[in-house]
């Protein structure tokens, strides 16, 4: 099995690099922003 | 590991932000703001003068008090700067003081406090770029246009996106990122992902369906085509199978992430991935700066350019950068490009399966890999987040579905003071004989009867009437006023667009800070030759296809 290059979270240049923690965090952040926008406007 | 770096930097950033907010609040920098935004300032001064005259006249005639002036575009612009500067300035100052006085201990609190200076550092640059350098270059471009014969700021796309990325690249390669900001820069991709998820709120189902059809056709052809081309060309020049496999995914699908995802199935070595990433980076960065200029020269619209960038640029982050560089004021091009980006990702499982089959066939004794496990582990979950936001938005969770574009038609929301005045009605009646089409005549009669546009279809007919040659100016003005009164702005959607623009600006500046010459220099070996040939064919081929077959459309 070839050695897989490891990536430090957030340091790769592709947006689509899979990182479960980061992905879930981004979804939570997007929901918070949406609720905030709805609440303040 | 302790993440918090003892430094007064965050406190200084906070004080600078607070100072900018305060100076704007008091009007001390109105001169500078007026220089940066001349047309908005001119209109604002005119509005203030008009309002003052009304107040004066009312006072002289002892008439009822004049209503307060509606906020001008210039004031709204300033208000946004004040609010953001004061909010983030206060947070930075507070946390800056904590950092100076606190003894950090390993843990979550230390991690989150440790990344904040870097985040505020990027945000500070984003403020300077969006509020200062972007309008400044725009102004210089216009000023030098008569001398040069062309607008250098427009041709080189010197807007906040490109300037931000360039500043980031200069900082990491020349000046070096300050130690206090190192950890915070990692949040760039997180913000880009949040931006892509939020983008899901801005599509209509019809738009997504139409873009989806074009993107599946184009991406299907180019993804599978370039994977096939690399797999054919690589062995021809004796490139190792593992390097060819990992490059095929990178060049075909979405750059770095696809290379990483496919690495286990082709048993790639670290050096194969390093070569591939270097090749993709060089191509991505080159395309990010070249594509928008070519797009402007060819007079492409958002759909055409978004389709081209989403297909022809190898790496996802650079697709977003090119789309925003091409159209920094609107989100339309980014919307199209991101659909293509997401479609590319959805092709990843097919490509991984193809590569696995190809590799096992060529390499005898290749180790078996659990494909299901690889696919599940590498699938970017945030694409599902995008679909969740799209679903919520389509169901009207944030704003009525017809408002997704920011501007929407609604006749019943026309205020009484916006109804056409008697003089306008007289002008329209006088213009009636000039209208030839039956539908247009009916729309005119309905407008005259109701003093406002009643339906969106009639609005379209009346827009055509306004273009009739020789139509009296009073009638054209009346049609224009009626059209303007029936169209409204969705504050919620505008707020989403603003958030998305800031998240992408932040993310792209942070990503610029990760584009190192060192990582590009690692490109080499056979992957550089194969990647360059296929990358070039893909960029030119997709441009030709887009120009021939993709037409602009609106909903």
Summed up, what is this model?
The complex is a heterodimer of chains A (41) and B (555). Chain A has one helix and no strands. Chain A has one helix at residues 20-40.
Overview of the molecule:
The complex is a heterodimer of chains A (41) and B (555). Chain A is built from one helix and no strands. Chain A has 41 residues and is mostly helical. The radius of gyration of chain A is 15 Å and the shape is elongated. Chain B is mainly alpha-helical. Chain B folds into three domains: 9-155, no CATH class; 197-398 and 506-549, no CATH class; 411-487, no CATH class. Chain B has 25 helices and two strands. Chain B has a two-stranded antiparallel ribbon. The mean pLDDT of chain B is 89. The chains are: A mainly alpha (41), B mainly alpha (555). At the A-B interface, helix 1 of A face helix 8, helix 11, helix 12, helix 14 and helix 18 of B.
Descriptors:
heterodimer; A: 1 helix; B: 555 residues; mainly alpha; 3 domains; two-stranded antiparallel sheet; 25 helices; 2 strands
Query: Largest sheet of chain A at a glance?
Result: none
Strand content of chain A: under 5%
Structural class of chain A: mainly alpha
Order of helices and strands of chain A: H
| Spatial gap, N to C terminus of chain A | 54 Å
Number of strands of chain A: 0
Query: Widest sheet of chain B: strand order?
Result: 1-2
Instruction: Average the pLDDT over all residues of chain B and give the rounded result.
Output: 89
How would the global form of chain B be characterised? globular
Q: Output the helix-strand order of chain B.
A: HHHHHHHHHHHHHHHHHHEHHHHEHHH
Proportion of residues in extended strands of chain B:
under 5%
What share of residues of chain A is helical?
40-55%
């Amino acid at each position: 099995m070839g050695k897989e290059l490891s990536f430090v979270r957030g340091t790769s240049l592709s947006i689509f690099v899979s990182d479960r923690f980061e992905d879930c965090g981004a979804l939570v952040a997007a929901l918070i922003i949406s609720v905030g926008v709805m609440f303040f406007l | 590991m302790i993440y918090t770096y003892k430094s007064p930097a965050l406190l200084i950033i906070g004080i600078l932000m607070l100072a900018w907010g305060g100076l704007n609040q008091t009007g001390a920098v109105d001169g500078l703001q007026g220089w940066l935004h001349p047309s908005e300032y001119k209109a604002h001064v005119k509005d203030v003068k008009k309002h003052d005259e009304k107040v004066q006249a009312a006072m002289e005639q002892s008439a009822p008090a004049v209503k307060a002036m509606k906020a001008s575009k210039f004031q709204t612009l300033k208000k946004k700067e004040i609010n953001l500067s004061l909010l983030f300035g206060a947070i930075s100052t507070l946390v800056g003081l904590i950092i100076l006085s606190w003894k950090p201990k390993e843990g979550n609190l230390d991690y989150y406090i440790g990344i904040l200076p870097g985040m505020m550092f990027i945000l500070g640059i984003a403020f300077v770029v969006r509020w200062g350098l972007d309008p400044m270059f725009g102004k210089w471009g216009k000023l030098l246009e008569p001398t040069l014969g062309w607008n250098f700021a427009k041709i080189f796309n010197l807007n906040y996106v490109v300037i931000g990325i360039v500043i980031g690249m200069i900082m990491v390669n020349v000046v070096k990122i300050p130690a206090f900001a190192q950890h915070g820069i990692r949040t760039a991709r997180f913000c880009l992902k949040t931006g892509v998820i939020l983008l899901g709120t801005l599509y209509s189902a019809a738009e997504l369906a139409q873009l989806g059809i074009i993107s599946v056709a184009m991406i299907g052809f180019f993804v599978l085509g370039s994977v096939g081309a690399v797999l054919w060309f690589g062995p021809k020049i004796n490139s190792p199978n593992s390097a060819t496999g990992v490059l095929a995914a990178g060049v075909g699908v979405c750059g770095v992430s696809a290379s990483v995802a496919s690495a286990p199935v082709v048993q790639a070595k670290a050096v194969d991935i390093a070569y591939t990433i270097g090749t993709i980076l060089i191509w991505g960065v080159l395309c990010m700066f070249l594509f928008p200029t070519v797009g402007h020269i060819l007079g492409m619209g958002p759909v055409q350019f978004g389709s081209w960038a989403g297909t022809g640029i190898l790496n996802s982050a650079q697709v977003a950068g090119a789309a925003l560089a091409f159209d920094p004021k609107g989100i339309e091009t980014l919307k199209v490009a991101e659909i293509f980006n997401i479609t590319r990702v959805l092709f990843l499982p097919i490509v991984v399966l193809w590569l696995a089959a190809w590799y096992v066939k060529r390499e005898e004794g290749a180790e078996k890999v659990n494909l299901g496990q690889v696919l599940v582990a590498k699938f970017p979950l945030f694409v599902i987040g995008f679909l969740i936001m799209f679903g919520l938005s389509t169901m009207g969770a944030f704003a009525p579905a017809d408002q997704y574009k920011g501007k929407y038609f609604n006749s019943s929301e026309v205020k009484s003071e916006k109804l056409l005045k008697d003089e306008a009605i007289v002008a329209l009646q006088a213009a009636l004989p000039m209208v030839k089409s039956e539908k247009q005549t009916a729309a005119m009669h309905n407008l005259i009867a109701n003093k406002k546009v009643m339906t969106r279809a009639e609005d379209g007919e009346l827009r055509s009437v306004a273009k009739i040659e020789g139509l009296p100016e009073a009638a054209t003005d009346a049609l224009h006023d009626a059209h303007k009164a029936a169209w409204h702005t969705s504050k919620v959607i505008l707020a989403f667009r603003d958030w998305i623009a800031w998240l992408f600006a932040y993310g792209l500046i942070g990503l610029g800070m990760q584009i190192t010459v060192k990582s590009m220099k690692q490109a080499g070996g056979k992957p550089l030759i194969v990647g360059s040939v296929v990358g070039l064919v893909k960029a030119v081929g997709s441009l030709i296809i887009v120009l021939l077959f993709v037409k602009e459309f609106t909903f």
